[in-house]
Amino acid sequence: MSKQKFYKIVTYGCQMNVHESEKIAGVLSELGYVPCGELSEADIIVFNTCCIRENAENHAFGNIGMLKKLKAENRELIIAVGGCLPQQVGKADNLHEKFPYVDIIFGTHNLHKLKDYVLLKQKQKKAVIEIDSDEGLVCEGDNPVRTSYPNAWVNITYGCNNFCSYCIVPFVRGRERSRHSENIINEVKRLLAEGYKEITLLGQNVNSYGNGSDNVTFPQLLEKIANLDGKFRLRFMTSHPKDFSEELARVIAANEKICHCVHLPVQSGSDAVLKAMNRKYTAQDYLTKISYLKKHVPDCAVTTDLIVGFPGETEEDFEATLNLVKEVNYSSAFTFVYSKREGTVAAKMPDQIPEEVSKERIMRLIDLVNSLTREHTKNYVGKTVEILCEDYDKKKGMYLGRDCYGRMGYFKSETNAIGEFVNIKISKANGVSLIGERV
Ligand code: SAH
Ligand code: SF4
Ligand code: F3S
Fold it and tell me: CA separation (Å) from 95 to 60, 74, 87, 89, 299?
């Protein structure tokens, strides 16, 4: 009998979800499924969804909707929908009503039971729907099918306790819990032994790692990992500014394996908006954290997330954001229009900002961020940087990878360079990316 096939997991949302899709692929492999690249060949298709903003949700809904025909042609096909979207109150039922042909609906806390759900679904006609609110879950013993070589994602925390007033994550991911440091370190050791060259530690708020369950703090954990043998890079995301300490800046400076790039989402430059967002820092507090980095790691690239059009945001508030962006001089930034999420505190706030105002603001913000990014990129021309080669771009006919500041560089190579550290001399800056020659 030919092997059952799974279509590459359809993933939306953050790196956490990207890694969880690798875990889902691992569960399916344990069941004997092998990957395939064509929807029409698949015996199972899994959607790993996101609900951080309305458009992430709509995107998933649209793509699930498109499978109706395929399912009608192939009754044996299993369609499963997991991740953050069905984890919202009432959404699993909503999905089931809207797409009765979806066979399995599971939440972020149920990922490890997907095996049981698939076996159950093969036996029964009716859909399998299970959404746990088991917040104590800390996953160990996963067997992900990793797809991001030479990088490997490693969870250090799950969930979030911060309840930023706009954010759905604490509702769909549960309370923050940390993995034991020994388990993390053993996983990293295994990955390094397997040849991975970059480790990215994942958590919604990595800085609060430990959180009572382990005596090891985040800076200590970083240091322990950075002290492991071998040439590799260490990255982490995401840092919450309220928990970003000077000690962390010192640890970054003192350990050459830790990359000189920090993603520190500020969201807004206005104290009134930050307060309403429940971010627990002022613009000045944030700038103080940046000063720790500038003092200890002067060449550190800083990136951020920004939200425009938060309820009540005035033109002055928005200008405070523009000013802060200029002052920090980010090397790049993700910019978002505020999206109302049912169940969050901000959804009930008065003064929701009209779409055209938010759109106009985000265009101004994007222009500013792009001009800063271009300036940073221009400064690279003539310099030699070390790239960790990640991939080959067939269209460009070039290999690509990132330097330790997170900047993408392209180069030509006669031999397969994926997984190698390569020095390239930058001859051209092209928007956000760099082009150079191997030296
Ligand atoms: N835990 C991380 C990332 C959370 S989600 C952190 O706190 O930084 C990634 C980004 O999505 C957030 O930083 C925020 O900028 C954005 N975001 C979250 N909820 C949003 C919403 N309701 N509308 C628009 N953007 C949102
Ligand atoms: Fe959401 Fe805030 Fe938690 Fe980040 S820290 S996941 S923005 S609640
Ligand atoms: Fe990530 Fe989206 Fe969930 S950003 S945590 S996949 S809501």
Answer: 11, 20, 11, 11, 48
* For the CA of 205, the nearest atom of ligand 2: 5
> pTM to 2 decimals?
0.96
Residue whose CA is at the smallest distance from ligand 1 atom 4: 204
- Cα 16 to ligand 3 centre (Å): 7
Three-state secondary structure readout of 306-358: EEECCCCCCHHHHHHHHHHHHHHCCCEEEEEECCCCCCCCHHHCCCCCCHHHH
**Span 298-351, pLDDT tens digits:** 999 999 999 999 999 999 999 999 999 999 999 999 999 999 999 999 999 999
Q: CA angle at residue 140 from 207 to 195, to 5 degrees? A: 80
406: left (phi over 0), alpha (psi -120 to 50) or beta: left
Take residue 321 and report the two structure tokens written for it.
Answer: 């954001």
Across the chain, mean pLDDT equals: 95
Residue 24 pLDDT > 90: yes
